[in-house]
Amino acid sequence: MRLDAAGEAVHRVEAIGVQLATMSRFAEDDSLSEAIAALQDQLADLQMSMVDPRLTGQGHDGVCFEAKLLHEQLREHLEALEALVATEVHALNEMLRAPGDVDYRGRR
């Protein structure tokens, strides 16, 4: 595992978080809002287990990953991120695509 994999994983979590924050501003459907909030919480927990962005106030920029992640921990966190994307992010995308269900603006 390369150290830059940790940076890429944290960047991916942050990018998904930005997308979720944008979607949450437009979501008018309660079930969609709840799904977005739950996924945001899961991503925040995963990110905090990888690095503590509060240490720098800059997200992953300037954070020393070595202080928080060992090689085997990095592998576990990357697997957890992939599992979260494959399940929760996928489920949210399916909710958004389902015909007759809500779209990101809460319309049916």
Layout of secondary structure:
Layout: H1 3-26, H2 30-50, H3 71-97
Strand content: under 5%
Report the major sheet: none
Overall mean pLDDT: 78
What is the helix content?
Answer: 55-70%
Shape designation: elongated
Total strands? 0
One letter per element, helices H and strands E, the order comes to: HHH
Counting structural domains, the number is 1
* Structural class estimated from helices and strands: mainly alpha
From the alpha carbons, calculate the radius of gyration and give it in angstroms. Answer: 15 Å
Helix count, DSSP H or I runs of 4 or more residues: 3
- Given as residue ranges, the uncertain stretches (5+ residues, pLDDT < 50) are 103-108
Measure the end-to-end span: 44 Å
What does this structure look like?
By secondary structure, the protein is mostly helical. It has one domain (3-97). Helix content is 67%, strand content 0%. It is built from three helices and no strands. The chain has helices at 3-26, 30-50, 71-97. Helix 1 runs antiparallel to helix 2 (30-50) and helix 2 packs antiparallel against helix 3 (71-97). The radius of gyration is 15 Å and the shape is elongated. It starts with a helix and ends in an 11-residue tail after the last helix. The model is unreliable at 103-108 (pLDDT under 50).
Summarize the structure.
With 108 residues, the chain is an all-alpha fold.
Key words describing this protein structure:
108 residues, mainly alpha, 3 helices, 67% helix, 0% strand
